[in-house]
Amino acid sequence: MNVFFVAFLLAVLTACNKKCEDTRSFSPWLFQQTWFTTQAGGKDHIGGLFGDSTGEIVAPRKIGDFDYCAKGMTLYLTQRNVWHTRQEIKILALDKESMTLQFEDKTIFKYYRAGR
To answer: What is the pTM of this model?
Structure first.
């Protein structure tokens, strides 16, 4: 077997099994909830849902179920799909009324808490 191929496989497997040390610099109480695309909220306007280490983003585009780790104000997502797709999302702003995220393609999107 090709030595380079074996080295590549080991590097990939090691990276996939690496545990992220969560060093978030934002309040989990503000972040871990359901976020909406409008200030009115409601089930037709769900934009994203975040738990302690899992989530789902629905808008501006669907990013299926994922696990995440936060370092500072950056989320490192690993989607729970066949390819374990990875993404990096920056939290630009987070307060008790809204959250603004910047996606890898530089799209900036604002979310709202319901009833605020």
So the answer is: 0.79
